[in-house]
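pasting Flagellar motor switch protein FliM for the record, 332 residues
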Amino acid sequence: MPGEVLSQNEIDALLSALSTGEMDAEELKKEESEKKVKVYDFKRALRFSKDQIRSLTRIHENFARLLTTYFSAQLRTYIQISVASADQIPYEEFIRSIPKMTILNVFEVPPLDGRILMEVNPNIAYAMMDRVLGGKGVSVNKVENLTEIETKIMSNLFERGFENLQEAWAAVAEIEPLLTDFEVNPQFLQMVSPNETVVVISLNTQIGETTGMINICIPHVVLEPIIPKLSVHYWMQTSKKERLPEEIVSLEQRVKKADLPIITELGSTDISIEDFLLLDVGDVIELNQAIDVPLTVKVGEIPKYAAQPGQAGKKFAVQILDTLKGGDEDGK
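structre below
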């Protein structure tokens, strides 16, 4: 780890202190050689690297854009959703950080194990429901008294919105989000052990004039199988997909049936624009091609063969005499 850069005045003061005996060089060396101990809190075990957290942030930035589009279409009002932060904390700390009464949507994401929690601030949830019911998007926080109709409207809205996570995660895992539980009291919801590390992605959300947060809580058990795919090396590498034998055969058959333009040049010449403008029916243009010189056959503008003219039945034809150099498969 690089040390702190000293100014020239600090360097002069340090040299002066060493020369006058105020500081001992041996003591400085001893302090440098001592092991530096860093306090580690086992309750806040960091199980994800910064690189992996950045990858999760990128994935959910895409998810936030998809949610913005989805809710804009559903609510017909101004919607803005963006990633505010991504942190790894104990599950217990996350539960303490959200309101005592809030909107909790629990999703399974097969084939991955575990469940993902999407917590929606009541101000946001009620503003969305008000818009669905034809209102202006006014928020009234009475989450502890949700009716069955309100519960159904909210759960349906967030269930369809969370389906966008499937597209956002497509690069790392093929998941099928499924809403399994809808709760309003975090104390009644125990997805994992209190000390389990979870990644919390917080989304700044604005519905018209109402603002709030949407938090997505992802336990370590869900991400464990796909952790290698969250590294920079995975995102940077290019995977080469091998074709199946039947795909190769099918491709060859389609290529063989493709039409190619075949052009035989009888010759060419140069004339002036004046002569060109005076051309009329019956005029003869002299070509620079001798009769005893083979004609050039082009395939897709590329000279490919040498041929001689002739007749096949009642139609004009050419007979291939040779393959031209430079007319190979790469088109050179």
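The chain has a mean pLDDT of 81.
The longest strand covers residues 79-90.
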